[in-house]
Amino acid sequence: KQKAFIFDLDGVIVDTAKYHYLAWKKIADSLGFEFTHEHNELLKGVSRVRSLEIILGVGNIKATQEQKDKWLVEKNEDYLNYITNMEADEILPGVEVVLQWLKNNGQRIALGSASKNARPILEKVGILHYFEAIVDGNDVTNAKPDPEVFLRAAELLGAVAKDSIVFEDSVAGIQAANIANMVSVGIGSRAILHEAQYNFNDFTEIATDFLQTLVNQQ
Ligand code: G6P
Ligand code: MG
Fold first, then answer.
1. CB atoms near residue 58 (< 10 Å)
2. Which of 22, 25, 75, 87 is 20 to 30 A from 108 via CA?
């Protein structure tokens, strides 16, 4: 059977969550408030614009649109500096084994990410060729937990929701997959991703038996 396997990018395929965090923290530092890793969980899977709103909420800061636009540009410039030299060694453990197994077994693969930097990152780390469809922050209007990004990805792969499997590291992303009636696989801490149908700490824990089970599922 052919299924649609949809991957989130940041925190699932590559460890860019740490760069997003550092770039946002720099903005928070310059505004004089503490931005912790717990706060950062709220930003995972969330668009750039929405992330800034959340951060300003944390710092209890009111700003004009002009200031916000400036911080959005600064954050992305800083982030781009971090990712510019990314290479294959920043692909998270076990990811390529899973992508290769899916390819070898005739499964379809798509990206479903909120990031507007998704394509260059996949290119830099050398795994763009695995993806038959890419839906990213440039294509969608409604951010996760809205299921738009995953529904679009499944549609591009010609799959219905129940034949689609989503790999996600964010609470918002797991919720989006669940709302779409897709199979949700959480990558990361079970304590945080408890709404996921399945959960693994990383892709090295995902055996081919499990992938085969997903493929065979009715
Ligand atoms: C992903 C990340 C978020 C990030 C968002 C937008 O969902 O998990 O932390 O804010 O993409 O990324 P961008 O690269 O467009 O700023
Ligand atoms: Mg993510």
1. 20
2. 87
Cα 45 to chain centroid distance, Å, stands at 5
- Asked if residue 114 has its Cβ within 6 Å of ligand 1, the reply is yes
Q: Which residues are annotated as a binding site?
A: 8-10, 24, 43-48, 51, 75, 113-117, 144, 168-169
Cα–Cα distance, 162 to 94 (Å, whole number)? 25
d(CA 33, CA 212): 48
pLDDT at residue 128 tops 90: yes
Query: For tokens 């649109």, what's the residue?
Result: 65
Give the ligand with the smallest distance to the CA of 8. Answer: 2
Q: What is the pTM of this model?
A: 0.94
User: How much is the ipTM here?
Assistant: 0.98
CB–CB of 171/195 below 8 Å? Answer: yes
